């Protein structure tokens, strides 16, 4: 793709009137240099990922809802413990605890299935967002900062599902005017990009500091900023997918813990939540950052 690189190569710079060397003002800007290098990396990644590209949307949608499916299974397998906690610690009347759990389980299973099969995505996403809010209130976690940031990222992934479904509708009716749909998609893609990075912010400000943690945090935060502003969003989203996947396997390896280990459920919960954010990032890699991004503005100019 042709890129504007100042006056380099076009002999439009101001030559030295005395025949000396030309000014360095015609050199490419640092932003152009970064864009050129990341474009090369993106080309390599595109070549490597070519076999799985057709399946990326399906993989992304499944990963986004996998935390809800795991949560539904956990509630069913720990039914009595859930009832005791809600009744004894949250002081919810006994009959309402049953109703609360049943509605949550059914909503998570039905809506997750609809997301996976790409049916009624609007209603499915609304139902899952409702689960996020009701669980935060029911379990008393709404003021837990780490929980709050993680669930903002999960909501970001769900918004990416909506955006992806609208892209497909627009493609189906490409010959008809779709201005409202297009505008709505643009705003939701921007909101999804912003919300997806909150999980990483929670990671940065939690846990003990080390050289490894600082290095990963700096690289990840740079990638997060690139995702938010839409500068080489596909490359930066891919980088975040790699970082989060490695972190997830090394830190949230719940399968290595004893069945009755006190942190096993927490590690499993964190593992599947990060998978959901990875799914949202995969949808971003597949569909691109949208109109409100530096990448798209660069195409215009």
| Helical coverage, percent range | over 70%
**Count, helices:** 12
Question: Given the helix and strand composition, which structural class is it?
Answer: mainly alpha
**Fraction in beta strands:** under 5%
Poorly predicted spans: 1-13, 170-179
Structure description:
The protein is mainly α and about 300 residues long. It is about 70% helix and about 0% strand. Helix 2 packs across helix 6, helix 3 crosses helix 4 (about 95-115) and helix 6 packs antiparallel against helix 7 (about 180-195). The longest helix has 28 residues, at about 145-170. The radius of gyration is 23 Å and the shape is globular. Mean pLDDT is about 80; it is low at about 1-15 and about 170-180.
SSE layout:
Layout: H1 30-49, H2 56-77, H3 79-89, H4 94-117, H5 121-138, H6 145-172, H7 179-196, H8 198-204, H9 211-229, H10 233-251, H11 264-287, H12 294-300
Helix pairs in contact: 2-4, 2-6, 2-11, 3-4, 4-5, 5-6, 6-7, 6-8, 6-11, 7-11, 8-9, 9-10, 10-11
Give the tags:
single chain, 301 residues, 12 helices, 0% strand
Describe the structure concisely for a colleague.
With 301 residues, the chain is mainly α. Helices cover 72% and strands 0% of the residues.
């Amino acid at each position: 793709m042709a890129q504007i690189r100042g006056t380099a190569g076009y002999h439009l710079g101001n030559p030295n009137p005395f025949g000396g060397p030309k000014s360095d003002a015609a050199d490419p800007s640092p932003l152009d240099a970064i864009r050129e290098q990341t474009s090369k990396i993106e080309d390599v990644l595109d070549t490597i990922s070519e076999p799985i590209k057709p399946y990326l949307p399906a993989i992304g949608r499944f990963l986004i809802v996998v935390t809800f499916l795991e949560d539904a299974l956990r509630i069913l397998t720990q039914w009595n413990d859930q009832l005791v906690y809600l009744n004894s610690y949250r002081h919810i009347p006994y009959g309402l605890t049953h109703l609360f759990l049943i509605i949550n389980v059914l909503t998570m299973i039905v809506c997750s299935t609809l997301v996976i099969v790409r049916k009624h995505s609007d209603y499915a996403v609304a139902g899952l967002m409702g689960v996020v809010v009701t669980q935060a209130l029911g379990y008393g976690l709404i003021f837990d900062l780490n929980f709050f940031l993680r669930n903002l990222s999960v909501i970001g992934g769900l918004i990416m599902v909506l955006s992806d479904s609208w892209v497909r509708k627009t493609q189906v009716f490409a010959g008809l005017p779709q201005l409202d749909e297009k505008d709505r998609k643009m705003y939701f893609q921007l909101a999804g990009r912003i919300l997806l990075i909150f999980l990483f912010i929670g990671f940065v400000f939690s846990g003990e500091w080390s050289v490894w943690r600082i290095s990963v945090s700096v690289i990840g935060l740079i990638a997060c900023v690139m995702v938010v502003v839409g500068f080489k969003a596909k490359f930066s989203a891919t980088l975040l997918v790699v970082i989060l996947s490695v972190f997830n396997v090394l830190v949230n390896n719940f399968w290595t813990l004893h069945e009755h280990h006190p942190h096993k459920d927490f590690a499993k919960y964190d593992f599947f939540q990060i998978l959901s954010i990875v799914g949202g990032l995969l949808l971003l890699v597949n569909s691109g950052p949208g109109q409100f991004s530096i990448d798209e503005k660069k195409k215009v100019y």
